[in-house]
Write a structure and sequence with these properties.
By secondary structure, the protein is mainly α. It has helices at residues 14-33, 36-52, 60-82, 107-116, 120-130, 136-143, 147-167. The protein has seven helices and no strands.
Length: 173
C-alpha cells in the first residue's frame, strides 16, 4: 500500500490525487481484468508511476487524463503478460438452456462476461465508454488512436454483443 503521508508534495498534491482517484483507477482496472487482486496490483503500479511523474503533471485535469491512460495501458499489458484473456471466440460461447427475460438482474453479469471476451483494444474502448462514460473523442485521445477507429470498435463491439444477446433471447431488436 502507498504511504500517503510520507509522500512529498509537488505540483498537484499527490495525496489528494490518490484519495480522489483511487476508486476510478481500481474500477477501470477491475472491469478490464475481472480479478480483484490483480486490479489492486495494477492500481498500485499506476499510483507509483504517478508519483514518479508528478513533475510532469500540469493540472488536476491532466492528472485524470494521465491516470486513465496509464491504467488502461497497464491493464492491457497485464492481460497480455498473464494471458488471462479468454481464448474463445464470441460466437463459440455456450448459449443458456433457457431464455433470459430482459428484466433479469443477471443481465449485467452476462454483459460483463461477453465484454470480457472482446480483444484488448475493443474491450478497453467499451469500458472507457460505458464504465467511465467518456465520449469517443476523449477515448481516442486517451488511447492515441483515430476517432474513426474508436467509433468502429464501439459499433462492431455493440453489434456483436447485440447479436449474442438476441441469440439468448434477450431484447427484441
Amino acid at each position: 500500500m502507498i504511504e500517503l503521508e510520507s509522500v512529498e508534495q509537488t505540483g498537484c498534491d499527490f495525496v489528494d490525487l490518490v484519495r480522489e482517484h483511487q476508486s476510478m483507477v481500481f474500477s477501470l482496472s477491475y472491469h478490464f481484468l475481472h480479478d480483484r487482486d490483480l486490479a489492486e496490483e495494477v492500481a498500485q503500479e499506476v499510483f507509483l508511476a504517478l508519483h514518479r511523474h508528478m513533475a510532469d503533471i500540469k493540472s488536476p485535469a491532466h492528472a485524470v487524463f494521465w491516470l486513465r491512460k496509464v491504467v488502461v495501458q497497464r491493464s492491457i499489458d497485464e492481460t497480455r503478460r498473464r494471458k488471462r484473456r479468454p481464448q474463445v471466440a464470441l460466437e463459440l460461447v455456450a448459449e443458456p438452456a433457457a431464455n433470459t427475460p430482459a428484466h433479469d438482474p443477471m443481465l449485467g453479469e452476462v454483459l460483463r462476461r461477453l465484454i470480457a471476451t472482446l480483444p484488448e483494444t475493443p474491450r478497453a474502448v467499451m469500458i472507457m465508454r460505458y464504465q467511465e462514460d467518456l465520449d469517443p473523442a476523449e477515448i481516442a485521445e486517451l488511447l492515441e488512436m483515430p476517432l474513426g477507429t474508436v467509433k468502429s470498435h464501439l459499433q462492431r463491439s455493440l453489434a456483436l454483443l447485440r447479436e449474442k444477446l438476441q441469440r439468448r433471447g434477450v431484447g427484441d431488436h
